[in-house]
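pasting for ref
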Amino acid sequence: MTVTETRIWLVRHAVVEENARATLYGLNDVTLCPHSLAAQAPVYRALAQRLPHPAHWVVTPLSRTLRTAEAIFRAGYASVPLGVEPGLIEQDLGAWQGLAHAALPPRLTRPAHAFWPLAAEERPPGGESMADVVGRVGAALERLARAQAGGDVVAVSHGGAIRAAVAHALHITADNALHLAVENLSLTRLERHPAGWRVVSVNEWIFPDGIG
């Protein structure tokens, strides 16, 4: 049987260091938490066994995705060249980037989303709304699917971008996408078929003995 789908394996980067987690770090190039890197070594080994080989790998311009990919390689996945896909980067929070959650300015017209400090259509000064992210990520997915047609793509990305990828695949709104849980080191799988996108799984948690 001829395989016609392109398979996209989206991995959210590892947990970042504690001080960064207290802020809207967005595009800030924050470091990974060394304690979590050590404690979650079995998860990296499980990901190394679970992810397809061969595959075309991409990371974003932020070092936390590169360091996560390198940790998976050290855990047993045979190293491959890493491309950089800026279209899969995290939401640009503009002037609000790096603010503590409690320091966000009051907003009168757009209340925060239930599961994110910003409304889906809210665009921070100089930044992007979640709706903007859905458009950007969708274009990047289509580009990758064309370039790697019929193959596997592993993309180490970010929580907001992965939610946006699912929104693009399902044709749902950015507001609906923000209801999705995407944990650090979780796996989300999409397929691009000639007829359109298919969502295989969202937020898989990979344990050493299988899938959570």
